[in-house]
Amino acid sequence: MNLRSVVLPILAVAGLVATVAAVKKMEFRTLDVPVLLTPAPSPFESRIAATGLVEPLGGVIYADAADAGVVGRVAVAEGDAVKVGDILWELDHTRTKAELGLAEAERMVAEAQLVDEEVRLRALMESGASEVLPQVERVAREQSVKVAVARLQRATAQVDASRAQLQRETVHSPIDGTVLFVDVRAGEYAPPGGRRMAIGSIDPMQVRVDIDEVEFARFAQGGKAQASLRGVPRSSLPLTFLRVVPLVQPKRTLTGEAAERIDTRVVQVIYELGQGTHRVQPGQVVDVYIEVPDTAQ
Q1: In this structure, what CATH number is given to the domain that contains residue 213?
Q2: Per-residue pLDDT tens for 51-108?
Q3: Residue 30 falls within a domain, yes or no?
Q4: CA distance 57 to 62
Q5: CA 256 to chain CA mean position, Å
Q6: End-to-end CA distance of the chain, in Å?
Q7: Which domain holds residue 284?
Q8: Residue 184 in domain
């Protein structure tokens, strides 16, 4: 009998027995992971549960320059309160200011030329020489005055264009609000179309609530609504209905929960955020409960 045909089956059986014994000795433990964030209790018996994103009232406004260029000055920082028309930041004005100075000098020359032509024409008409001079020469002097007027208008337009360019290179605040973040620095090149500075009105603020399209059939504008901060179950923030966004769209505000679905479509409802017992910052995610009246069930 071949020794290999005897040893190999014995080794295989021994290995199987050892594996079974090792598995039986292993202790399978179920880890009890504590829930760090306890959901806030609903104040309503019948409700719609949703998540909301705290925003400045009217949304976030991104302030950017109309043209590209090197940043010359940043006038504000995060948290600063601004008024309508305040300068937020501006591009380097060296070239534009030089062009403005040249345009203003050309306008002064055009004004002097117009005055000179008008004096000559007035002197001709008052001296009585216009009756003696040929009609062609009189018309030529009148045309010189018209040309001088046109030159002055062109020079004035160049001055206005240079001043308009200065305005395009300067970013002003369109609202009374607060600077939310600043991502622009003096000396860096800033192409147009970026989101380098954001401002918004944070007193009061609003909450953009995402309601699942399936749950929206139960929604009623007259129902009460309340928000609570994550991690602060006893926080209570009253909400006042403002409007419903008509367009149903994919869910974008994610909470990070493991069981959260991201392939859902939601209806966004905007509420004004009232004063509560806790401080709320723009960009925070809050838990929202919306009362469903008996007539809407």
Answers
A1: 2.40.30.170
A2: 899 999 888 999 998 889 999 999 999 999 999 999 999 999 999 999 999 999 999 9
A3: no
A4: 14
A5: 23
A6: 83
A7: 36-60+201-297
A8: no
Distance between CA 144 and CA 118 in Å, rounded? 9
Q: What is the pLDDT of residues 116-175, one digit of tens each?
A: 888 877 776 766 655 555 666 677 777 888 888 899 999 999 999 999 999 999 999 999
Q: Token pair for residue 158?
A: 């160049």
What is the C-alpha separation between 13 and 7, in angstroms, rounded?
10
Residue 114 lies in a domain: yes
Sign of torsion over alpha carbons 74, 76, 78, 84: negative
Domain count, the chain: 2
CATH number at residue 117: 1.10.287
Same domain, 218 and 163: no
Q: What is the rounded CA–CA span in Å between residue 131 and residue 164?
A: 47
Asked whether residue 114 carries a pLDDT value surpassing 60, the answer given is: yes
CB of 282 closer than 8 Å to CB of 78: no
SS3 141: helix
pTM of the predicted model as reported, rounded to 2 decimal places: 0.68
Distance of CA 26 to the CA centre of its chain: 56
Cα 222 versus chain centre, distance: 30
